[in-house]
Amino acid sequence: MLAEVAAPGFEEARNFLARFAELEKAPEHVHFFRIGALSIWNAASAGMGLEEILEGLAARSRFPLPPNLVSEIKDWYRRFGLLRLLREGDLLVLRSEDEELLGELAGAESVSPYLQDGTAGGFLVREGDRGLLKQALIALGYPVLDLGGYVDGAKLPGFGLRKERREGGAFALRPYQSEAARLFYAGGAATGGSGVIVLPCGAGKTIVGMGVMDLLKTWTLILTTNTVAVRQWKRELLDKTTLSEEDIGEYTGERKEIRPVTIATYQILTYRKEKEGEFEHFHLFRDRDWGLLIYDEVHLLPAPVFRATAEIQARRRLGLTATLVREDGKETEVFSLIGPKRYDVPWRELESGGHIATARCVEIRVPLEGEERRRYLQAGPRNAFRLASTNPQKLAALKDLVQAHQGDRVLIIGQYLDQLEEIRESLGIPMITGKTNTQTREKLYMAFRKGELRVLGVSKVGNFAIDLPDANVAIQVSGSFGSRQEEAQRLGRILRPKSDGSEAVFYALVSAGTVDQDFAAKRQRFLAEQGYGYRIEEWRAGREGVEG
């Protein structure tokens, strides 16, 4: 679908389309939306009616709706809820009013192992097969409306949110954070209790998690990306809730504590001694009576954790992310095993409300010349991308940018360690990479937060779950091939609201006329989808700085 930006009623139409369609790209004059099965299922799960979709489209469309589009939407919508998992006494039953469909699915090789003796209009399902069945059915194009309910888990008495932070200052959930937690919880009904909250970096996804914990007051297992993120979660919980140090366990490569609220890394859960060996720490999912699992950065959920999640569908599951885009295309896995999208709010809407910083994005195109250009032209595709990404001219452009932002808090982000090492030596700045131990990382992050350190370099380990609220300039010197997910996370490093209300600036250094520029265009798409303009500048050696 194409939506004309200059047409009367565009903003209202855009907000309407966002409820059941995905924004693909947003150039200056026309925005492109795509309707697909998953977007319709998310809309149906959120309670949007079929007639509301079709009548709304017809009322806003310049031309009559194509009959095949109407048929596709009706078919996708009809499939949601056609299959239901219900709790009948102590039994879990897959039911449908379409008994012919049930018979066909029972004969499907991927589904039949999970269906037990039939009852009138349904099949019994083993508790342990609940997630595996949902995975198999969505792969065939039939999402399951799971109304099987949840176990409450062990109680967490006395848990609450503080009105005054331990570190000082008033604390309360923002209205959109409360709304997100409320929609996930759904009053404790089986229609809620699983799903994904989509909020921009800096909008307080961690606080939404705390809001859900406050509604449930149950033992909670939190899974996140790395040890630094584990400790940031712990610091936030201690600052804003009534939990004590003794209530919170860290389950990482360094410590193995299991407590009423336990925070673990994806890395430790997917650790195994041999490639085909057992995952030694999966027992964590079963060792305690968890009432809630929180998957931080759910778009990064490793495949083995999907498997473990399939086995614990009776536990409430909350996914937190800035983007549902997965580079492996497993969005349907998130939908079936974590749950549907429960809440989403446009980045620019939060920006206009002052909840995240105003940001502008600038692409700086740097020439690739001489011997480097010759090597690039002779290289194979993968090596060509690396040569373009690590263009030596980027270092000179980077120095200009750092010079132009002397009074700011600047993050320099890159993909290649040799490039980052050269930057570290040339600028004389500290650099955090995968080899930097946790203690040193935390020390450098703290120095940056306090303003003792104004320029900090990070490799891709800085993409996720680092809390640097006063960072207001990010300079990306290299990135993954075409990862919109990565671009969103890197922009997110500077989106936390600034104490002085200043705007944030995101620069991408790109080698002109190369695959680096081509892939940069793909990464920009996510930013365009969120409504950010992208200015392009040319850099030349010898010019006096770069406009800041």
Tell me what the structure shows:
By secondary structure, this protein is of the alpha/beta class. It folds into four domains: 2-79, no CATH class; 84-147, no CATH class; 175-345, P-loop containing nucleotide triphosphate hydrolases (Rossmann fold, 3-Layer(aba) Sandwich), CATH 3.40.50.300; 356-538, P-loop containing nucleotide triphosphate hydrolases (Rossmann fold). Helices cover 37% and strands 18% of the residues. The strands form four sheets. It has a seven-stranded parallel beta sheet, sandwiched between helices. Helix 19 links the parallel strand 18 and strand 19 (455-458). It starts with a strand and ends in a 10-residue tail after the last strand. 44% of the residues are buried.
Mean pLDDT over the residues: 88
Helical/strand content category:
alpha/beta
Note the gap between the termini: 36 Å
Major beta sheet, strand line-up? 11-12-10-13-14-9-15
User: What number of domains?
Assistant: 4
Unreliable parts: 544-548
CATH architecture label of the largest domain: 3-Layer(aba) Sandwich
Q: Name the beta content range.
A: 15-25%
Taking all Cα atoms into account, the compactness measure Rg is 25 Å
- Which fold name fills CATH's third level, the topology of the largest domain? Rossmann fold
Alpha plus pi helix count = 21
